[in-house]
Structures are given as structure tokens and as C-alpha cells.
Amino acid sequence: MSKNEGLFEEAKGHKMKNKPLGSFLISTLIISGCSSTGTNQGLHTNSTQAELETRELVSIENELQGIKNRISKLEAKISVIKGKGDSVTLNDGWKRLKSWRKLEAEMDYESVERILGPAHRIDGGIAANWYYENGGRVTFYRGSVQRWEEPN
Fold first, then answer.
1. Residue 139: how many other CB atoms lie within 10 Å
2. How far is Cα 113 from Cα 139, in angstroms, rounded to an integer?
3. Most buried of 117, 122, 136, 145 (most Cβ within 10 A)?
């Protein structure tokens, strides 16, 4: 039994000479009991929930702004790359002599594929030959370019 409930029972048990004073005391105990048993807790919980939701919303807005900034930077980089006029359309670098002349000894598979695109036929294992439709060929040994033949 809580302290307020005990006082309430004690007040009810006493016969008071002044009934209005007794009624006032009982009402006061009831009201104070309500406020300590959760009426304010509901307001506090709603306030806390609103604060949490506001913080979460601010966090989401900050994250969204960061994403927008990253997208803007990437779009700027793309426009710079497009503006250079040096880009190779995906998978067709092998068609241009200019692309073949970018090859260097000791390049790895990924670098060659980025410049020329994927080979049309590959033979070999440790020593591999990549063949392209236009007659070009790249020879690798243990994953590194050893030599290449530009297309005719």
C-alpha cells in the first residue's frame, strides 16, 4: 500500500468534526494520489516520445542531405569525365587504335579490360591470349601483359 493510500484510509477512518475539512483532505489525497500514479507519467512519456521522434527526424534529414551532397559530387565528376572527350564507350575500346596504344607491359587483366573491353575469345592458362574481333591480341603471362598486337 502506498503512502497516499494509507493516509486516505486513515482519513476515512477518523470521524472528523468538520466535514468540509474532511472532504477537502480526502479530495486532496485523491488528487495527489492520481498525480503520483501516472497521470503526469503519460505527459512525460508523450514528451519524451516526441523528443525521440524529433531527434530521429533530424538524423534522417542530415543523412539525406549527406546523400544529396555525395550525389552532386558524383554528378560533377561524371560531367568532368564526359567533358574530356577521352572516355571509351563500354566494351568497344578494342575498335580504336588509340585505345590499343594505351596498353603497357605488366598491366593486369582488369586494366586491359577497362581499356579494350572484354576479349571475344580467351585461350590458355598461365600464358593466356586474349583475341579481339578486329584481329588484335593481348598476351598475358601470370596475369600480366607481356605483349600485344594491334589490329590490322
1. 15
2. 13
3. 136
Side-chain-facing half-sphere of 41: CA atoms under 13 Å: 6
Dump pLDDT digits (tens) for 75-117.
777 766 766 655 544 578 999 999 999 999 999 999 999 999 9
Asked if 148 and 105 touch (Cβ cutoff 8 Å), the reply is no
DSSP H/E element including 69: helix 40-84
Q: How far apart are CA 36 and CA 21, in angstroms?
A: 22
Q: What is the DSSP letter of 141?
A: E
Distance in angstroms (rounded) separating the CA atoms of residues 17 and 24: 13
Amino acid of residue 32: S
CA gap 81, 70 in Å, rounded: 17
